[in-house]
Every structure is written in structure tokens, then in C-alpha cells.
Amino acid sequence: MLPGSLSYGYSPPEPQESGGLNTISAYNWIMTDLLQLSADYQLIEQAIRFLEDNARRQPLLTEVAAHVGLSDYHFQRLFTRWAGISPKRFLQFLTKENAKALLSRNSVMSAAYEAGLSGPGRLHDLLVHCEAVTPGEYRTKGAGVDITYGFHPTPFGECLVALTRRGICFLAFVDEHRQSALEQLRFDWVNANLQEDPSTTRLVVEQVFTPQSPISPSPREPRAINLHLRGTNFQIKVWEALLRLPPGAATSYARLAEQVCSVKAARAVGNAIANNPVAYLIPCHRVLQKAGGFGNYRYGPARKQAILGWEMAQIER
User: What is the pLDDT of residue 117?
Assistant: First the structure.
């Protein structure tokens, strides 16, 4: 494990002679869970795409289930396992009306979130801090920086995560080709020294994406997640503003631009969002169109809707 890298999300118990889960079985539970959720996501995305393509005629859930090759019963089980709620309730989160409601309640939730009074901790027991590279490090594009990376399953498909000694510097979802994600990492940190070590990056993925462990039923202490970001001063300001947006809320490009500097900078804000190097943790998926449309997403509009729906489902549970 790299010095200064992030610690595990909880401390598994020591092996027990009298039975119970030990460190190895805890690890197996986590990896099995993430692999299952990642596999489930592929069907969830197919369902969302089908509904998008047939939005005008609003197909019944029975038809959606058949499209992804499942019976009604197993379709219910899929959503319950992945999101914790029924498919009917989950898909209600993905309506334009709900998107508008998210935008309207953003200001109230954000104020409570920043004051530490809100309940989004039920979703993320993470405290995310970001640190920008120095101007010299920005110019040299990572010269002398050691980066460890690995590919791992998540509830939203496979991801590529990369770490420096100061925190997470890259997190991208992988659709079909791992090489594309790896090339983007190399482009962002062209002069850095890259080394694949999934045994190290796995610890971070577990912190970010693992639900409450069955061997630790009591609530976990908030976990500190450090981000090490390479971007312009303006991009950093946009990404920091996104970090203040709580789960269960959303904002528009214009509102975010006004928060950062000026409503006239909406296009520049959109460009900063498009270049977000740490997906999910810097929640660019929570930026919607002003009229209530979900808009584009670097990793596909279906994944954006899936993440938003999943977040709202966790809050409702």
C-alpha cells in the first residue's frame, strides 16, 4: 500500500476460532457483492435504455422485464438487490417531473448539507477533500509523480481508479474497452510513472462503493477520501462547487455557473464538468438541464440516470 494512501473502510475482525466472519470471508463478501452489483447494473442500464427509446408509448414493466430477459419476479428481485427498492419506484425517480423537483429543492438541501444538519450521510459516509496540483506540477503534466491504478467492479459497472500518494487522481467508468480509459489516464498525467496494482486500488474502491458490511452492523465513522486533482484554477473551482452538492439534490448548468462566478459562464462550466477526472465522487451526474432534462454524461446518459436513481433510492430506504 502506498504511503499516505487511503485506509480501508472498516476494520475487519481478527480470525475467530469459534466461528464467525474473519478477514478473508469479509473480503470475499465485499468482492462478491460488488461483482454482483456490477453484473446487475448491465441489466439495469438495458432497462433504462429501453424505456428511453420507447418513452412515447410508456411500456409496461412486464415488457421491460422481457426485454432484459427476465420474468416479472426476477425483474423485481434485480432492482431490490441493486437499489433496495422496486423497479416501479426506482423508475419514478427517472421522470422529468422528478428531475424538476430535484432542481427546486437543491438550495434547501445544499444549505443543510453544508451546515452538517442533513441526512445524506445515510448515502455517503464519506468526507471528500480535494487538493490541486501545484502550478509547477500542472505544467510538467505529472513528471516525477508515481500513480498506481487498477480495474474493479462497482454498482455502476467496471471502473478504472488511479492514486497518487496524495489521493485519488482519476476514476472513470469502463464500458467496453479498458484501453480507452487507460489512455485517458495517460493523457491526463502524460509524464507520470504508472504502475498497475489492483491490490492497492481495491482498498479505495471498497471505501467508495461498498455498502454497510454485515459484520459491522453499527454505523461507520465518516471516512476521509482525498482527491489529488490536476486542472485549471477555474476547473478546480467548478469541481469544488460540485462537492458541495448533496446526494438527493441536483443543480443546473446556469445555477452552477452563477455559484462559481457568473451565469454567463455556463458553457465554460459545462466544459469543466465534461473534463471531471474523478467520476461519481465529484458528482457531475447531479447537474441537469434547466428545463428538467437529464442531459449528457461522459459515461452515457443511462448511467447518469442509474446513479441518480440509485442515490435517491438509498436516501429513501
Answer: 38
62 grid coordinates = 412486464
Query: How many domains are contained in the chain?
Result: 1
Q: Which domain holds residue 78?
A: 23-95
Asked whether residue 251 is assigned to any structural domain, the reply reads: no
Instruction: Note if 261 is an active site residue.
Output: no
> What is the SS3 assignment for 217?
coil
pTM over 0.85: no
DSSP class of residue 297 equals -
For residues 124 and 167, what is the distance between their CA atoms, to the nearest angstrom?
Answer: 18
Four-residue CA torsion sign, 133, 136, 142, 145:
negative
SS3 assignment, position 214 = coil
Q: Which of 130, 159, 169, 284 is catalytic?
A: 284
CA-wise closest residue to 280 among 168, 192, 189: 168
Does the residue 233 lie in any domain?
no
Is residue 59 within 8 A of residue 50, CB to CB? The reply is: yes
In a domain, 228, yes or no: no
The burial of 2, by beta-carbon neighbours within 10 Å (0-12 exposed, 13-18 middle, 19 or more buried), is given as: middle
Cell of 179: 484501453
Question: Over the stretch 131-186, which tens digit does the pLDDT of each residue have?
Answer: 999 888 889 999 999 999 999 999 999 999 999 999 999 999 998 889 999 999 99
Question: Cα separation of 70 and 39, whole Å?
Answer: 14
Q: Where are the alpha helices (DSSP H) in 244-300?
A: 253-260, 266-274
Confidence of residue 222 (pLDDT cuts 50, 70, 90): low
Let me know if residue 52 belongs to a domain: yes
Q: Cα separations (Å) of 80 from 30, 33, 186?
A: 18, 14, 38
